Amino acid sequence: MVKQRVTAMRKQVEELIRTGATLVRESNGLPKSGADYELYNSYPTFNTFMKTSEERLNALMAKVTKSIGIVMRVPDVGSSVEHYTECVIEAQDNIAERVSTLHEVLKKADKDEIVKVPEYITKAAPTNRKTESEISAAMKTFSANIGTVLAQKFRERREEAAETIVHEKPQRTYNIPADNSAAPFASKLTVKHHAIKKRAGIVLIDDDESGRKEWNRSETETEEEHPYMTEVLHFKVPEEQLKSGETRKFKPLEKTPLTMVDTTEKLEALKDVLNSVKEFSVDLEHHQVRSYLGLTCLIQISTREEDFLVDPFPIWDQIGMLNEPFANPNILKVFHGSDNDILWLQRDFGVHVVNLFDTYVAMKKLKFPKFSLAYLAFRFADVVLDKQYQLADWRARPLRSAMVMYAREDTHYLLFAYDSLRELLLKQDAKLLSDVYSECRDLCIRPYKKPVFNPKGFMTEIKFRFTLNSRQDFALTSLYRWRDVIARTEDESPQFVLPNHMLLALAETLPRDTGGIYACCNPLPHFVKQHTGDIYKIMMEARDVKLEKVELTAREKINAQEVRGVMNESMDQLTSILNSKIDFSHIKFDEERGEIDIDKSQVGNDIQQKDCQTSLLSVLESSTVQNMESMIIVEEGKNVDCKKIKKLLNELNQFVTPYECYTVMMKEKERLEEIERQEAKRKKLEEGDKPKTLFSHHDAAVNRKAEFDAKLLNVDTVKLNSNETEEQQQKSPMEVDKDPPVFDPSRFSDDQLMSKKAMKRKRDAARKNIDVSVVLGESSSSDPKRAKTSEDKKEVEDFDYGTADNSAFEKTVKNNEPDFDPFHQKYRVKNKSKKNMSMKKSSNRQGTINYKK
Prior knowledge:
Layout: H1 2-28, H2 37-41, H3 44-67, H4 81-111, H5 119-122, H6 132-143, H7 146-163, H8 170-173, E1 191-192, E2 213-214, H9 229-233, E3 258-261, H10 264-275, E4 279-287, E5 295-302, E6 307-310, H11 323-326, E7 332-335, H12 338-349, E8 356-358, H13 359-365, H14 373-381, H15 401-412, H16 414-428, H17 430-444, H18 458-461, H19 470-490, H20 494-497, H21 500-509, H22 514-520, H23 526-530, H24 532-543, H25 554-564, H26 573-578, E9 589-590, E10 595-596, H27 617-620, H28 642-654, H29 658-687, H30 710-713, H31 722-730, H32 733-736, H33 750-753, H34 756-768, H35 772-776, H36 784-792, H37 807-810, H38 825-846
């Protein structure tokens, strides 16, 4: 069906492309603006025809865009080409955005579930038959403004939320008991139907021909013992269920009667109906936010002719009578994902299942691309399920019509899907059907167990973003224990009492007052506000703990990593499959799905071996290949070239895999480490037990001989200068015997031998003594400064101050001539007044003082 629709859509797209190409070709033949258009437009007939055509095209574009939910801004008749282009581009952008949105929705749905998309938009999505009113409503939704649509949807959801608010918990309204203690779970089964063996600790009351046994509840019944252990283990699948049969088509929902079971009389009638049929389908709706252990809110049961919805709240203690049809080995029960449903039936009602067929297990055996109930109904029944109420609050009463429809669809198509899956399993391999029943038997035998409180359970439940110290660890442990106690007492889930992120915030910050506690818990939970004093006491006790660093034990780290699916610090569950050291090439193991086919019918041969033809070993091991010609495929009429095969095998033999390279490298590394250990051991034996000479600052400097590393200084490559060799030859024989100088300054640069300050002084001196004449190509004799400096370098004669005449310095200097002014005093006084006047003028003119001369 889907392939036919896809083919039809492809043909429509191809036809649309051809039509568009024809339109472009025809439009190119029309008169263009700036050429002959003005001439043709001068004729009234042509002008009228063009206006009529423009109006018709505008109406056609508006109609097309409106049909797909896009409102186009249509230009007026006679608008410019640029305005038309702008409007068309805007419409194309809106269409592309709508297509992208729908594509993202379908892409997301492909990973999870199938979404309802109106058929008039995609022309390919499978939808249920809608009435004309539903189609018109959908047309209005997709054609209207998106803001109006979102506002309308928001109002509808708000009204739905107001209708589904639970003002009082069903546990209190209907007096439903809840055993949240730490004691082991005790089975609620009071009447055991279709029993085979009497168990220890059971008081037998009645035993008739039908195998019905009754007993009083015994205290020895614990959660470790399954009441139907013997019956499930000795169960044999009826022959009718292992043979091919008729695939009975389901009835439409409109023609299938629905019965609401909420009284004891209706429940007894339902029990009689189920005892009279050969198979029926079951599903449960569960709630666990406002209950510690969880609460079954609805039971959906469907037969071939009728649908039933069981409201368990009013008849909570009487639902146990359904154990008779559920435990009957001759009646088939069809579930989808029954691993939790079976445990919930045991916990709340004492109902146990025998003879189960789980469609989820069958889909995994057939290796379907997806395993959801929505995909199952779509593939076999061609129906799209609306899963928006999957996480709804099913405690609300009365149930809305949409929720009732959702609950019916969960079981209405399961029996038809069972028939289809059975035929596929038998067609593929008759043994697969037996394997499905074998895995379903394991699901039925699982007993319900209460959750056990672990004081360090937060290590596996919460992912930390920081390392805990002793105070934070004490606070987190105490809050975790307090949360569990309150949840058990009030029959609430721990997450409802105090969410994990708030729990972690309190342990991290350790608030000092009530305001700090409220700041860490926003929005404030009811039980946190009610027990603020207990939380404040825990915070104060945590602050009194000695501050230390907390190190996790190896066992705690391993447990936390196993629960999170992490094998080590840098590997998660997905990457561990890729880095697995186990070779699955010889067994039937699907590395992508992580499944191993196990044959439970044969003892001692659990894992099924692959055939030689399907195994990779048949290709890698050349010894198993008897005929070389089977290794290559050639065209008809051509001979097989065995030389190519031999050459290929030789290349394969010479090829070294990365693992073999790693093995060789590790062996070489071990060999080198062993050589180093032997060398260290030899040196230790040579040195013996001689005491090592230790020096201190009290010893003479002569006794502390400097030692240098020959590898770093390259002593062996040190070469002495020729002058040093001549001096060494002239020295006495005693001096020659001395060790040659180890340190050679010529081998090092100035940066390595001198400090920063010394290097700076050296650069300054070099800069002062630089000979510019040499750089400019001039001779030093032509430079007067150089000549002057050369004269200055002459030796200065010593002056004898004792023989000098000092009388000239004792006379006062006096000269009556008017021009005599040795210190230029007249000039200074004269210029001082001029300078002051110029400064005043400049300050008045510019507002600033001018200090220039």
